[in-house]
Amino acid sequence: MSQECRYSGKKCYKTRKSEPDVAIGTCTVAYGKEDSKDIIICPNRLLERNQIFMDCLHLLTNHEPGNEIHIVPEVSIPGGSVDYVLVSTDNNRKVKDFVGIELQTLDTTGSVWTERQKFLCSKGLLQEKPSEEKGFGMNWKMTAKTILVQLHHKISTFEHINRHFVLVVQDCLLNYIKKEFAWGHINTPAKLGDSMHFHSYQMNKSKGEYRLHLLERFSTDSNGISRLLGLQANANLQFEEMARILETKISEQTILKF
User: Fold this and answer.
1) According to DSSP H, which parts of the chain are helical?
2) Which of 129, 138, 135 is nearest to 112 (CA)?
3) In this structure, are residues 83 and 43 in contact, taking their beta carbons and an 8 Å threshold?
4) By CB count within 10 A, which of 18, 44, 96, 189 is most buried?
5) How far is 21 from 23, CA to CA, in rounded Å?
């Protein structure tokens, strides 16, 4: 049985602890009793159609027509690592500009396996119903707090070299952050001069398929993130150093395909 993720093109990395060779293959769950909502629980689900990268192109302010666009995954910087960096290069593949992109989806508590098996049974894809009745929940508070702390450490690096950093989230998670943290100072609509941007996506069903759509954009700077958490960080990295890191990772495989 194929266990390849349709969004990453790689094997699904979400596996059962008791059966590490079996991929769970669940990136979205319906959650809630009365007004249930389809919630994304795997960051790879956000890679649909490369839309999140297209929506960051305007932040490559030094990009010029004719330059190549690359998507470079997992780049290490002071303060942690960045999920993706969108890079503009010249014909010699020398970096001219880049945007850091972080993906965050909701973490779950418990296991989604039982509900997964029930769903497969309801669709006639599995004959034997699950015997166990373990449920799952959404870890709203920890997910939100963790990503905001990570943003605080990373945004200082990008702000120091005058580059943009983007957090890509589903609308329900960003709505929780807006409700639980001091959000009033965050700029809406987003301002190009701000270093930290938030891109909120909504997942809608159209013609029998779910598709992501950019819903809202917000922005702030490192001080704005500090006001959310009351923390401080110091992570400086020169543009040339970051460019050297990116140039070692750029290849034909990283080119953004339109």
Assistant:
1) 51-54, 113-122, 140-160, 171-180, 222-229, 239-247
2) 135
3) yes
4) 44
5) 6
Query: Within 13 Å, how many C-alpha atoms sit on residue 17's CB side?
Result: 3
Closest CA to 194 of 227, 232, 220, 233: 220
Residue-wise DSSP of 222-243: HHHHHHHH---------HHHHH
End-to-end C-alpha distance for the chain, whole angstroms: 30
What are the domain boundaries of the chain? 43-107+139-254
Best CA proximity match to 256, nearest among 122, 68, 91: 68
- Tens of each residue's pLDDT in the chain, 258 residues: 567 888 888 888 777 766 777 777 788 888 877 677 899 999 999 999 999 999 999 999 999 999 999 999 999 988 789 999 999 999 999 999 999 999 999 988 877 767 777 677 766 666 677 666 677 888 999 999 999 999 988 998 999 999 999 999 999 999 999 999 989 999 999 999 999 999 999 999 887 889 999 999 999 999 999 888 854 444 455 677 788 889 989 999 999 987
d(CA 143, CA 177): 10
- Reading the block at residue 56, the tokens are 């960051």
Helix axes 171-180, 140-160, angle to 10 degrees: 90
Phi, psi of 217 (to 5 degrees): -130, 135
**CA-to-CA distance for 175 and 188, rounded, in angstroms?**
14
